[in-house]
Amino acid sequence: MNEPRPPTAEEQLAFLRSLQRLLDEGSFTSSYKFALLHAIADLCIRKGDDSGAELELSTSEIAEQFVRLYWRQVAPFVAGDDKRVLRQNTGQTATVVRELAERHNRYQGSLAELERSSADWGDVRRRVEQTVRRMPLWRLQTVGSERLEFLYENVDVGGVVRLEPGVAYCFRAFYPMVTDMIEGAWSHFVQRRNPQLLGQVVELRSFLFGSRRSSLSAYRPLLRDLQHGRCFYCENDIKAGGDVDHFIPWRRYSLELGHNFVLAHKGCNSYKSDLLAAEEHLERWTERSLVYRYELEEGFDERGVLHDWPATRQIARWAYRQVHQAGGQVWVQARELRPLSDDWRQILSAVPHAAA
């Protein structure tokens, strides 16, 4: 059996061209195929590696990502006096949208509360999984009369797909570009299905997929207590307010899990911007997630905040690996940057598995 290898430059280019063909030429009667592509990309970050190996994904895992992607979108969109859930298909209301809209209303928009209701969470996940198997999974790679099987083999049945060698690598390597393509095409699709309500709404994409400008004030009291009122980065006192910052920047991966948030001075947050933080900050961040594990999880649960430390750490590993492979720099303080050393590997491996 051949050892896995990263795809060549030509193979990576072929992947991007095939993906563009799916988005440009594929038949989209609902937004499910966009969601499926996005879910696969997300799972490649959470589960994959950079070896170029195949990656097996279950329809249960894909269904969970579907729920997370659509949860924001099933909230009613308000335009003047009109308020309704956006259409995501050409016929009747899409099954996933209908199922999640009912839960969104029942749990007052809190996905964390839905997940804590094991019976209801299990039920909606199974229903979404059935839809994934029936609708987009085995139709995604159909372009006209052609099957463009570059992601996985179309076996047309079953609850598992095995991504072809190099596919997970490409989704990881080009994640920001790929998700930008998918979200742009998805937004355009929704815009065309809701012309009277949306018109030329500029902020549609932020409504569908979120924005780093969204309110994070619910995290501030918990983070202030854990950090003893000090900035996470410079460790000086925060006299008032403070910015809730995405430690792994939103621009790199829209990670809205609780462990990814820190409280910082407005200036530190502004200087850091979309950069990864230097190794000393990374070490303090991983230590905080271990030392204050129970305080964090209890605080997140009380505030209805989703959290998953193993997933957060896996995404951090991916983000730092991408910068390291590119020979990139990380943020130290103010305007000071420096090349990322190899120390990030040891830091993100230092947290014992049992504690994760």
Strands of the biggest beta sheet: in what spatial order? 1-6
Uncertain stretches: 352-356
Shape: globular
Q: Give a quick account of the main beta sheet: strands, pairing sense, barrel closure.
A: 2 strands, antiparallel
* SSE sequence, one letter per element: HHEHEEHHHEEEHHHHHEEHHHHEEH
How many domain regions?
A: 2
Helix content: 40-55%
Q: Calculate the terminal CA-CA distance, rounded to whole Å.
A: 33 Å
Query: Helical stretch count?
Result: 16
Sheet-strand content, in percent, reads: 5-15%
The total count of strands amounts to 10
Structural class call reads mainly alpha
Average per-residue pLDDT, rounded, comes to 89
Describe this structure in words.
The chain is mainly alpha-helical. The protein folds into two domains: 9-209, no CATH class; 217-355, no CATH class. It contains 16 helices and ten strands. It has helices at residues 9-25, 32-47, 59-71, 95-106, 111-116, 118-134, 167-173, 175-193, 195-198, 204-209, 220-226, 266-272, 279-291, 293-302, 309-325, 343-349, and strands at 55-58, 77-79, 82-84, 142-143, 146-147, 160-163, 243-246, 261-264, 329-333, 336-339. Strands 1-6 form a two-stranded antiparallel sheet. Strands 2-3 form a two-stranded antiparallel ribbon. Strands 4-5 form a two-stranded antiparallel sheet. A hairpin with a 2-residue loop joins strand 9 and strand 10. Helix 3 crosses helix 6 and helix 13 (279-291) packs parallel to helix 16. The longest helix has 19 residues, at 175-193. The two termini are 33 Å apart.
